[in-house]
Design goal:
The protein is of the alpha+beta class and about 90 residues long. It has a four-stranded mixed sheet with strand order 2-1-3-4, with helices on both faces. A hairpin with a 2-residue loop joins strand 3 and strand 4. The longest helix is centred in the first third of the chain and has 13 residues. It is elongated. The N and C termini lie far apart (about 65 Å). It has one domain: Glutaredoxin. It contains three helices and four strands. It holds the Pfam family Thioredoxin_3. This is Glutaredoxin.
């Protein structure tokens, strides 16, 4: 028996998220269990936070955030470096 690969797609329902959902579905094999998760649900948002999701869309495979989705998102240092808060 083949072990299922758990794929979680974190989405907010935006067009970029929809594109990722379509891509993941097209790449998934029969042994992939793909779950589309709505970040507007507080339980989903909490799960995403535990995985380190900082922006959507994001994909986790077998409980690990995919490299393409890690390290993104807004942070104070980046905003300040871009000039936010400066006259």
């Amino acid at each position: 028996m083949t072990t299922k690969r758990k794929v979680e797609v974190f989405s907010a329902g935006c067009p970029a998220c929809t594109d990722v959902e379509t891509l993941v579905k097209s790449l998934a094999c029969p042994s992939c269990e793909v779950d589309m998760l709505d970040m507007r649900d507080i339980a989903v948002a909490q799960r995403a936070k535990t995985l380190g999701v900082r922006s959507v869309p994001a994909v986790a495979i077998d409980g690990r955030l995919a490299d393409c989705c890690a390290g993104r998102g807004i942070d104070e240092a980046s905003l300040r470096a871009a000039g936010l808060g400066q006259p």
